[in-house]
Write a sequence for this structure.
């Protein structure tokens, strides 16, 4: 069996050799889906493959999964059509502070923004308080019924919502391991892993939380250049910020409350507080939130004092370690000099635009 095939068992290689008649069949299926708003059951199925992480292999929490969905659903371009329709509403609804899954934006932009904010806070002698939020399995915990309600409130057309709802209705999965494959089972929550629609759906879901938390209306935040900034987001990675501990805690509790209303829970053990001013110990739901002097965000070290020299030194040490590990490759005669240069630059200068 082709291990890269989805629930229908059809390998991707088949779609690379389709003739015109087969393409017409796929086109006809898409027309039927659009007309009836019903999806083939095979297109709703996912094959989960568990990938071990570090730790005890007998613990389920020490695995992450990749999901294989039907190649036919992707080859038909039906999902791309829906994505294009949905994206225009995503662009309209999402604020600039959300950089996740958006063209021309990403983690490095948020890293640069946080560095700029810390530098300005230091320049104007302001204390600054950050909370780096971590959700417990955010993408897997999205409540479907609440998601459709959110899409409706954000002005998504009924036809699109109906198509999406029916794509998720009766969603099934199986788990494939080296020992065999499980029976099919129903999935009642979470956005579809491996589906190009999921980033759009999750971003709208997350935006609903932040709106209800009132982050845009509140005065809590960092006042810089005539603008109040209290959050920066990259999909589910959310950074809250304020000029006082009390303001930051108020922001966090509002986000926590609204997140729980739609089924998302904060992972207190992985959350971090970083402050340039005095800070007390935080306890939420009986768990202590760790206070740190620096934080690794998207592979870059962020410090409370905004001093980029820490990150530069860290990069140099990491670069030296990588160079040592690549010693045999760099000294080899089978690899060209330009390739070696590209390799070194990729290792040493990743996210370097933040501090260069």
């Amino acid at each position: 069996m082709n291990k890269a095939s989805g629930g229908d068992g059809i390998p991707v290689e088949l779609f690379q050799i389709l003739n015109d008649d087969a393409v017409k069949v796929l086109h006809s299926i898409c027309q039927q889906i659009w007309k009836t708003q019903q999806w083939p059951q095979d297109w709703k199925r996912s094959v989960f493959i568990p990938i071990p992480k570090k730790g005890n292999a007998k613990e389920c929490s020490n695995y992450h999964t990749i999901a294989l969905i039907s190649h036919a659903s992707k080859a038909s371009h039906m999902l791309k059509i829906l994505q294009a329709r949905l994206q225009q509403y995503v662009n309209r609804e999402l604020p600039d502070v959300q950089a996740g899954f958006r063209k021309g934006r990403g983690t490095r932009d948020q890293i640069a923004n946080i560095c700029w904010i810390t530098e300005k806070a230091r320049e104007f002698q302001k204390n600054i308080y950050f909370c780096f939020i971590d959700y417990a399995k955010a993408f897997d915990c999205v409540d479907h019924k609440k998601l459709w309600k959110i899409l409706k409130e954000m002005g998504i057309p009924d036809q699109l919502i109906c198509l999406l709802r029916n794509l998720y209705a009766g969603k099934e999965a199986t788990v494939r391991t080296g020992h065999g494959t499980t029976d099919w089972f129903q999935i009642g929550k979470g956005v579809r892993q491996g589906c190009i629609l999921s980033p759009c759906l999750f971003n709208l879901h997350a935006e609903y939380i932040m709106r209800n938390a009132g982050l845009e209306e509140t005065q809590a935040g960092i006042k810089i250049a005539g603008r109040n900034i209290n959050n920066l987001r990259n999909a589910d990675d959310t950074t809250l910020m304020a000029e006082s501990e009390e303001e930051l805690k108020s922001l966090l509790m509002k986000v926590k409350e609204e997140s729980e209303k739609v089924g998302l829970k904060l992972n207190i053990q992985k959350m971090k507080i970083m402050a340039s001013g005095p800070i007390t110990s935080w306890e939420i739901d009986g768990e202590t939130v760790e206070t740190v002097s620096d934080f690794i965000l998207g592979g870059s070290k962020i410090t409370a004092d905004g001093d980029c020299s820490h990150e530069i030194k860290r990069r140099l040490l990491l670069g030296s370690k990588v160079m040592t590990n690549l010693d045999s490759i760099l000294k080899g005669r089978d690899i060209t000099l330009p390739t070696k240069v590209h390799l070194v630059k990729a290792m040493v200068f990743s996210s370097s635009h933040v501090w260069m």
